[in-house]
Amino acid sequence: MADSGAVLHEQFDDLAQQHSAVTLGMWAFLATEVLFFGGLILSYVVYRHAYPHEFQFASHQLSVKLGTLNTAVLLCSSLSMALAVHAAQFGARKRLVFFLIVTMALGATFLTIKGFEWRTDWVDGFVPGSHFSFVSHTPRVDARKVELFFCLYFVMTGLHGLHMLIGIALLGFLTVHASRGKYSSGNFAPIELTGLYWHFVDIVWIFLFPLLYLIGNHAA
Amino acid sequence: MSATTAERVADYPPHPGTFVEEGYSLKSWLLTTDHKRIAILYLLAITFFFFLGGAAAVIFRLELMTPQADLVSNETYNKLFTIHGVIMVWFFLIPSIPAVLGNFLVPLMIGARDLAFPKLNLASWYIYMFSAALTIASIVLGGVDTGWTFYTPYSSMFSNSHVMLAVIGIFINGFSSILTGLNFIVTIHRMRAPGLTWSRLPLFIWSMYATSIVFVLATPVLAITLTMVGIERVFHIGIFDPSIGGDPLLFQHLFWFYSHPAVYIMILPAMGVVSELISCFSRRRPFGYSFIALSSVAIAVLGFLVWGHHLFVSGQSMYGGLVFSLLSYLVAIPSAIKVFNWTATLHRGSIAWDTPMLYALGFIGLFTIGGLTGLLLAALGIDVHVHDTYFVIAHFHYIMVGGAVMAYLGGIHYWWPKMSGKLYPEWWGRFSALIIFVGFNLTFFPQFILGYLGMPRRYHEYPPEFQIYHVMSTAGASILAVGYVLPLCYLLWSLKYGKPAGSNPWQATGLEWQTHSPPKTHNFDVTPVVTDEAYTYVEGKEQFVG
Q1: Bridge partners of B5?
Q2: How many CB atoms within 10 Å of residue B376?
Q3: Residue B56: which residues within 8 A CB-CB, separation 6 or more?
Q4: Which chain A residues are Cβ-neighbours of B254 within 8 angstroms?
Q5: Which residues of A touch B230 (CB under 8 A)?
Q6: Which of B32, B186, B317, B523 to mutate to test the interface with A (most CBs of A within 10 A)?
Q7: What is the predicted pLDDT for the residue at B544?
């Protein structure tokens, strides 16, 4: 670690120890997050198993096109995040700022598309609670269980969206600091850690997308 | 622990005074990032909650003196046992040893200047206090009547009490647990003094490490479960409501996936404390060090696989029940390994009957009773008979009060000279330990009999033939209350009038005893270099060093 602009906090012996400590801390935090979403995914799987018809029916009300597009957007954002970390490691300030902004923009694009999807669900009366107005005309499809699907759908995508928002806020913070030249090849831990977080939020979506959008036979 | 010292590059100039002398203003305490000061902040908070939760217990024990409901209404009774459960579980037991003793000792025991993330550590205390404020608010506004388990659909659909406020309080409280666990994991992995290998770590550190894993992996599941309860309560969507397709059993699975490991959050640190006490006061290296160390990890792992034993009569599949029963038996193996190893450590040891040792010996006996009755409950047939009776209450109080609280008090006495720099009056210490042991058994042993005879938990009226056991239990609780108030008095007294402790009053070998009492802000004048294991007692001999 050549030109170190990093501040060594006094509980650590050296920068290497500090860096490995904060990285491990982030991984431990992500382990917590895995279990947080894990409880939700488990609940989804239980009800998916209990009410296969309703869940397939409800899933087919979602737009696979928009879901796929969003998956692509998010994967691209992960690429640009990785490139940002790479730029930070080499102390390339302009490149770092550029890729941070690209990542933020892609994240915002994802949320915008998601917002349009949510709006459609609202108009169609699929938002659970007093607004839920879907009436089933299909045999073997109970409207209450369609509501259950949409409840899980909104909680899962909502919590994921909240994590995206936090990620974008973190990236905004990093962009301001990066443009002021706060990071260098010896001091890029915040970029790296935010990158880990961003990739994690991405991976959550990689699980949510097939669970929510792709169940059942779409050709039919 | 044998340790030499060496000048190292990053050593900071030693602080002139102890961590207490660093500043006396309120601000210097509330904005501190010193792990020792944060431990003291936690100590004050959880002591308050211990007595608050205890007060609720005193009221419902008084109510249970007579078979009729005469002291409080049935609604108030429900709220009292809920308050008792919520406060004792989340605001006392879970943070007790980790947040007080762990915070104070983990850096000292591994020769570090502080935890890896001092600001997160302070944040965890503020999160704890904020969540506590919300929970207190839910009590002041009228209380919660669901029991600490918040079972659906009662909690999500029917209860008219302040469930939302309490649920949000506990949700937020979880983040303080997670931050503490995360901090310990990173600190133990990355900040050990030179030469302090894993096989030289004090057993308390091993138990803190195992506990931290449970903190980090179990707590988020409670968070998402309570989130779903909250959503169901607000939007009336049937996530757990069977009448519209939900499954209340799912709530129980998710809840116990957290709450059973949470039992190990309470008992693992206690086991760590007891390992230290037994070794120090029998002047012996712990028998089977690596078995005690690894059994902590084994308990943490197995603890995640046994939640279904809370659901034996909830409509869980019979085969599920069989598997969970078997897995629950397996937890007995690492637990028994510990008990046997402690006993073997005592064998031929040079046993000193100091106050902490009395607590440690009490722990071994009471934990064994609690553990063995746990095996009875893990048996499918017996559980059907005693499920949701006082037998269960007695069982888990033997683990949590007879186990965790005894070890906590033992640990507080053992490390009090280190934390305060003062000695407490030994006679009063032993006397209180004895009072607590007697009071505890009188309170909870009759509950085994009550439960076996069929007294269900959470009832505030009962048939007259049960009265004798309830009277014994209430009498025991009064004795127990005296036993708990005494240490509060003499420990506070010792702060002003106690004799100076010196750096190592017990002639113990851990790194924490190699520095000042109370320690300076960065713990050690120079970072220690460890050259041997943590327990280098000369066996069978009293050591009079210094």
Answers
A1: B528
A2: 16
A3: B80, B81, B83, B84, B87
A4: 39, 42-43
A5: none
A6: B186
A7: 47
Tell me: the pLDDT tens digits for B83-121?
Answer: 999 999 999 999 999 999 999 999 999 999 999 999 999
A-B contacts at Cβ under 8 angstroms:
118
From the list A107, A118, A191, A124, the residue with the least C-alpha distance to A156 is: A118
Contact B345, B287 (CB under 8 A): yes
Residue B334: per-residue pLDDT: 96
SS3 category, B523:
strand
Whether A52 has its CB under 8 Å from any CB of chain B: the answer is no
Listing DSSP states for B442-507 in one string gives: HHHHHHHHHHHHT-BTT-S---GGGHHHHHHHHHHHHHHHHHHHHHHHHHHHHHHHSPB--S-TT-
Amino acid at B383: D
Chain B interface includes A40 (CB < 8 A): yes
Residues 6 or more apart in contact with residue A39 via CB below 8 angstroms: B220, B221, B224, B225, B254, B257
ipTM: 0.93
| Continuous H helices in B282-405 | 289-302, 318-346, 355-378, 380-386, 390-399
Instruction: Report DSSP state, residue B425.
Output: P
CB contact under 8 A, B118 and A11: yes
Question: How is residue B21 written in tokens?
Answer: 């002398």
For B533, list phi and psi in degrees, rounded to 5: -70, 175
Quickly tell me which residue has 């931290």 as its tokens. B212
Is the CB of residue A128 less than 8 Å away from at least one CB of chain B?
yes
Judged by DSSP in three states, B278 sits in helix
Copy the structure tokens of residue B382: 């017996």
CB contact under 8 A, B244 and A148: yes
Q: Do B527 and A147 touch (CB under 8 A)?
A: no
CB atoms inside a 10 Å sphere around CB B359: 28
**Distance in angstroms (rounded) separating the CA atoms of residues B133 and B126:** 10
Nearest 5°: the CA angle B246, B249, B255 is 110
Measure in Å the smallest separation between the Cα of A138 and chain B Cα atoms.
Answer: 17
How far is B357 from B355, CA to CA, in rounded Å?
A: 5
List the beta bridge partners of residue B520. B18, B523
Q: Provide, as residue numbers in chain A, all residues whose Cβ is less than 8 Å from the Cβ of B183.
A: 25
Report CB contact under 8 Å: B235, A151: yes
What ranges make up the beta strands (E) of B97-185?
none
CB atoms within 10 A of CB B541: 9
pLDDT tens digit sequence for A34-79: 999 999 999 999 999 999 999 999 999 999 999 999 999 999 999 9
Averaged pLDDT for residues B179-193: 97
Secondary structure (3-state) at A11: coil
Please state, as a whole number, how many other Cβ atoms lie within 10 Å of the Cβ of residue B28.
Answer: 12
Which residue, B37, B5, B162, B29, is CA-closest to B522? B37
- 10 Å Cβ neighbour count for B303? 24
Does any CB of chain B come closer than 8 Å to the CB of residue A160?
Answer: no
Tokens matching residue B324: 């969970």
- CA–CA separation, B393 vs B448, rounded Å? 8
Residue B257's closest chain A neighbor by CA?
Answer: A39
Contacts of B82 (CB under 8 A, 6+ apart): B143, B144, B145, B146, B147, B148
Min Cα distance A23 → chain B (Å) is: 9
